[in-house]
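Page 42, continued from yesterday. The earlier attempt failed because a stray header line got pasted into the input along with the sequence. Redoing it now with the clean sequence only.
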Amino acid sequence: MAGGRLVPEGRLSAGCFALGVSVTLVPGLSGTQSGFITRVLLATYLAFINVLLLLLYRGLHYQVAVRACFLGFVCGCGLLLSFGGSSWQHFGWYLCSLSFFHYSEYLVTAVINPKSLSLDSFLLNHSMAYTLAAMSSWVEFTIEKLLFPGLKQITWLSFFGLLMVLIGESLRKAAMLTAGSNFNHIVQNEKAESHRLVTNGVYAWSRHPSYVGWFYWSIGTQVILCNPICIIGYTLASWRFFRERIEEEEMTLIQFFGKDYEQYKKRIPTRLPFIKGAKIDP
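This time it went through. Structure tokens are written below.
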């Protein structure tokens, strides 16, 4: 917040995300029309709102608006699939989970740490590996749906994945809100005067609750899709990423907070399997 109010970029993003979600209100999309007509309606609506944003905004505001609106549009498409009674229902759950995660990263950053807010806060350009992982999950889901359609209709498994996503998402956002201005998507190498060691709330349970939440959220997305290959791949890749990230971050935290962090580290585990963090010399 800035002066108790959401910064303009945050308010803009919220309105544009809602505009994207409003695709669910387009007449005919929830009916039984052919797939071709559905695609035409979706493409027409997407083109319409993009032209609208081009007319209303320029520069950074347009860049924020188009990203938030696109994520809202994806979420809206996910809702249509989720409640449309098609065999793609579980993919709809996935689309909602993915789009809301990326949008909420930006919105919560706008609330807790507007000074660090940027287009990167959407995490849409996280890394090439992240992009390839997402694309591989779509490819696996599509191929297996064509070859083994029954594999994609295990509702109890997809529902379990959805629960993983909801719990992981909630834990990550609780961590961000608890950390407040101390939270940043980029590991900080220099200590600012405002930096403090956060040990309350979810940080009294885990040293890195935002990473724990993201870890289980990422795996949960693949459980939703019943993607056996990507479940294994995401688990191994996410575990390796967070192991390296935590070790790097904790070395910095030890430099920032010294003995206070070392004692905190001894008391509170990471809560990620087989990840203990940076080693402290005796």
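Notes: The mean pLDDT is 93.
Reminder to self: strip header lines before submitting.
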